[in-house]
Amino acid sequence: MAEKKTIIEKIWEDHVVHRDEGQPDLIYIDQHLVHEVTSPQAFEGLRLAGRKVRRPDLTFATMDHNVPTKDRENVKDEISAKQMDALKKNCADFGVKLADMFHPDQGIVHIIGPQLGLTQPGKTIVCGDSHTSTHGAFGALAFGIGTSEVEHVLATQTLYGDRPKTMNVKVNGPLGAGVTAKDLILAIIAKFGVKFGTGYVVEYTGEAVQSLSMEGRMTVCNMSIEGGARAGLISPDEKTVDFLTGRRYVPKEEEAFRAISEKWLSYATDEGAAYDKTIEIDATEIEPQVSWGTNPGMVVPISGATPSVDAVDNKDEITRALSYMDLTENQPITSIEIDHVFIGSCTNSRVPDLKNAAEIIKGKKVKDGIKAIVVPGSFLVKSEAEELGLDKIFKEAGFEWRDAGCSACLGMNDDIIPAGGRCASTSNRNFEGRQGNGARTHLVSPEMAAAAAIEGRFVDVRSYTTEEKIS
């Protein structure tokens, strides 16, 4: 009888190029995604060594971190301009495909990979960005790498790595009405901590995970890194196949597509396969979530409150977080007022994210004194959203409608939360200064962000009912 294997083991073993006892494996990389921030030194290393890009056909570049989301023709930040100019020159010199900030394929690298069909089950995918784990939603083994590793992949199309330990995060039961994929992953990190996945590649399983849309699965896998995991993924199924059907870099001919889709599905974890570790969470107990502190594990349900210092072991950490966030012990989450709203990032800037937020905001107004922006994840997402009229809904409510880019997720260009500002953000990190020096970030779902924009504070989005869904 054949050995039962997890998807993690199947993909890893399928990509080992060379193995020596006691040494990291050398694995083949199927897809290398590149952006302007972590690539300049890597390309310069190739240039100095007289090397070429080994497989330019398996390399795809875009501009996302530094691109302005308004007035794109006028890049005010000199460093941003230099990094984007360097990427343009490097891609031209080394024959790498580039979607620059005026190209119709431009967008956040973790948005455009799936929408173009570059992301596929069974692939190894790397990028000089920690949130490469997003692509794991398709049953790919995808992880972020450093600049020296970017150079190694460019030169050899391979990478050294230790065979990962496997973890199953099993989500039992269904999510309740009004509870989203963002709430699920925030609840997982809140329960198990920001280091629960250290040393592991995590596979998410269970009823709630299987019921998620592909966009919801991307949200969950995106934030695996916030739990310390090397990567996160979900076994492919028919939803995966349906999403990829017709994508540009996926075979179009019927027989070829049938063959590749069968191969994709074969990577799914075998029933009865053993993991190195399994942890479980009950989806039925999860409410809409809000982060209150300065890491993604400092999260409570909307019905909850900030912690009591006396009730925790890490007193110094909690005290510092409360101080930085200008909150008090045992403060109800619904009492926290905000003055900024950001809907965007590689976590939550796809069409369904924007549509769900628009359904909350439709016919209402952003509360006076709040600056609210929507930043689509790609040029294509923006175009599709505008075809649905979402831009009009947001603008009529008082939101700014921007061009695609990473934007306020990491406080780039003009999209910075000022010191002391408090932002309801659909991004993935709430570290001190992440969205601007002295800025205070609260991680929420798009729906929760939209409701906060209306109310000027955090409220349970389940109290909102939408009479008409946007089709």
Secondary structure layout:
Layout: H1 7-15, E1 16-18, E2 25-28, E3 31-34, H2 40-49, E4 59-62, H3 78-94, E5 97-99, H4 109-116, E6 124-127, E7 141-144, H5 147-156, E8 158-161, E9 165-172, H6 181-192, E10 200-205, H7 207-211, H8 214-222, E11 231-233, H9 238-244, H10 254-266, E12 277-282, E13 289-291, E14 299-301, H11 315-325, E15 340-343, H12 351-361, E16 371-374, H13 379-387, H14 390-397, E17 400-401, E18 422-425, E19 440-443, H15 446-455
Parallel strand pairs: 3-4, 3-6, 4-5, 6-7, 9-10, 9-12, 10-11, 15-16, 15-18, 16-17, 18-19
Antiparallel strand pairs: 1-2, 2-8, 13-14
Helix pairs in contact: 2-5, 6-8, 12-14, 12-15
Pathway: Amino-acid biosynthesis; L-leucine biosynthesis; L-leucine from 3-methyl-2-oxobutanoate: step 2/4
InterPro entries: 3-IsopropMal_deHydase_lsu, Acnase/IPM_dHydase_lsu_aba_1/3, Acoase/IPM_deHydtase_lsu_aba, Aconitase_4Fe-4S_BS, Aconitase_4Fe-4S_dom, IPM_dehydratase_rel_enz, IPMI_cat
Enzyme class: lyase
Amount of beta strand: 15-25%
**pLDDT < 50 runs, ≥5 residues:** none
In terms of structural class, how would the helical and strand content be classed?
A: alpha/beta
Instruction: Give the overall form.
Output: globular
Helical amount: 25-40%
Query: Architecture of the largest domain in CATH?
Result: 2-Layer Sandwich
CATH H-level superfamily of the largest domain: Aconitase, domain 3
| Rounded average pLDDT | 97
The CA-CA distance between the termini, in Å, is 49 Å
Instruction: Report the total helices.
Output: 15
